Amino acid sequence: MALTNWMGAFGRAQALDLSNDLERGYESALLIQSIELEHYNDRPVRPELDLRIPRSAQAQLLRRFRAALEVCRQSVQTLQTHRGELAGQEIRQFQLIESVVARYAASRDPLPAISRSPEVLPRSLIGVVDQVRRQLDPEAEANVVAGFRRRRDSTLVSLRILLLLILVPVLVQQISRTYVFSPLVDRFAPDNAFLTYPKPKLEEKAVEKLRLFQAEIEFDALLNGNPLPSRDELQKQLASKAQSLKDEADLESTHAIKNVLADLGGLAGFVCVCLFGRRDLQVLRGFLDELVYGLSDSAKAFGIILFTDIFVGFHSPEGWTVLLDGVAHHLGLPAQENFIMLFIATFPVVLATVFKYWIFRYLNRVSPSSVATLHNMNGGG
């Protein structure tokens, strides 16, 4: 039993290594493609050319290119023996890495040509032939089983780290607030003024409640046909109500301090999960990439339109207003209308700009058909 558990742990570790190598190689290949597109007019990188950028920036750019190319070569060497275990999006990622490495295969001696030489056969036809060859391979069944186990382990690791990223901060926030920060704040709040700092918003609410309480007393007296309370009786009732309102305001004031401290505890828990699960986060990123890019073009376009309409659409200001009011109330801060309007006028615009830049730089190269579908679903606008 122990030997079986040890072998299973070894297999999961090997699956994580393969996923990490594929992810690192894929990111490096995308980096090289972005360098080609930005600085070399979508042609191979030529170190002897002088770009229209400072020499120090060009030297740094070439260092990044060489480092990314070396990572791609290492990924190809590592994953070549496990090629039969790849499937779906992983195959496409590995083919992209191979195409980048093949483009610079002879770059250590002569420099690559200024333009890419045409291929003898279409790449899609070569892919079909390669797929048939892999299916006829005697070890195809073993490779398929090994690939299934690796993808299963990657899925389990991704779900585990995703649950930890959600549950650990929430549990730490709730437990620390209930059993740690609440007793401490309640104990030291009467002796420390900064724990119950005055809030004009709470004072305004207390005054409004006191005014409403006085009106209720007079209304009940007139409704029941009783004489109005004397000045001394009314002052006594108002003083008692004012004291209860003050205690209620002080308690609500301490809630903000408890929320801030508990949120910091939850943030610390989230950071700890990220630090101790860095390898699992890489697997999660690859899993999400395969999940998202495995969708159809229409599904991708639908998700993009849904996201943009919610956060940067014409009806999003109401949602941002509710969200900011809730955050301000949670932290015990007054909801400033001017700040909210300024935030709504700037942040969604910045978010929309970043999103469009991501579509142009990344999605347009990885899935151009999704961009075309998105353009058609938006009415060509």
Task: Provide a descriptive summary of the structure in words.
The chain is elongated, with a radius of gyration of 31 Å. It is mostly helical and 381 residues long. The N terminus is likely disordered. The protein has three domains: 136 residues, no CATH class; 130 residues, no CATH class; 87 residues, no CATH class. It has twelve helices and no strands. Helix 2 crosses helix 3, helix 5 packs across helix 8 and helix 11 crosses helix 12. It is found in: Cell inner membrane; Membrane. Keywords: Cell inner membrane, Cell membrane, Hydrogen ion transport, Ion transport, Membrane, Transmembrane, Transmembrane helix, Transport. InterPro entries: CemA (IPR004282). It holds the Pfam family CemA. It is a multi-pass membrane protein.
